[in-house]
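Lab notes, practical 5.
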Amino acid sequence: MVYLCVLKQVLLIIVMVFWLYQVIISLFSFVKPKDKKLLVNKQHRFMAVLPAHNEETVIRNLIRSLKRQDYPGTLLDIYVIADNCTDDTVAIAKEEGVFVYQRFDETKKTKGYALNWFLTRKVDEDADYDAFCVFDADNIVNSDFFSVMNKKLCQGEVVVQGYRDIKNPTDTWITAGYAIFYWTMNRFYHLARYNLGLSPLLNGTGFMVKFDLIKKEGWNTFTITEDIEFSLQNIANGRKLGWASEAVVYDEQPLTFAESWKQRTRWTVGHLQCLKHYTKDLLKGIKEYKTLMNVDGMLYLTGIPMMVVTTFLVLVNLAIYLMDGMTAMGLLLNCASYLLLTFALPVIVGGLSMIIDKRPLRPMIKGLLCFPFFLGSWILINFRCLIKQDVKWEKISHVRDIKIEEVQVK
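Output from the prediction step:
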């Protein structure tokens, strides 16, 4: 009994310190740092890179939103990587007058492999570009995206994540769950860390990379979450990533629970792959650079382990109760506190992020009420993936034909 009580206290301290750290860091989202000085003042030459696998429904809207940029068209080239396409993606891209690279490799279908394949060719060609930005085929992009990223490049930023917004947040309770999740992450994770001088993470789409970095180091990802993997590679090497709240990309989210389950399973498997392959590198980075940024990058990977620790803490409480070391009320209060931390707090924080960013609450009431179920299903996904990891890549359907004029705020 004594050992169980000691174990309970140790686990409780670990959980509370982890969450207290997250809360303290998130407070820096309210700090507005001084704008960085320009190291150069020029308009850089960009590639817009669009990996696409059978995206005939949405690819045209993305291309047209990129053509509407308030950035000189002579300095922006659009490339579609038609990755194992069997539909009209290639034909549509050619109709829109952009560059098309066709790739066929049934054994390596992920976006990471497509980017490696394409960027290797551009490096071999000694292509004359300063930077490239990556977009998913279902995206639509605000007209000032490249102007904002050009400024970041002028300020000396090397890898920068833009603001990932949602183009269909009110379609279903699932899309609302995604929206609340991303809005919360944008403000209380990425922005907070950027303000504090830590490193945000790449978020799948709408990010910029200085081309010289790829010329020197290449794009070498192999997990099914290439964005997180590339982020951790940079953090482990002491390189801080940038954040651009004003560079907005609108992303389509799955409409159904089944599609969402499939997508989030892929993300969890990728997270576990990164945990396995990059923990050692991140620990080396902590030892070499001795910065909070490296520690924070390592802590990002501990999200799923912390879920396991919290679950074990609940089981320890139950064991103490069964051994008459705790009252039923004590067990109930302890479990309730863990549940509130896991489910109620994210709803409050999600609502707060919407209020701060002046988003209308009324259309999202259903999403906020269902958000605990969205998070709960994610916990189930995490446990399932801990038991069985399916690394097979599966396409997520994109069906929402939404144009940039319908969502961009003037």
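Observations recorded by the TA: The radius of gyration is 22 Å. The first helix runs from residue 2 to 26.
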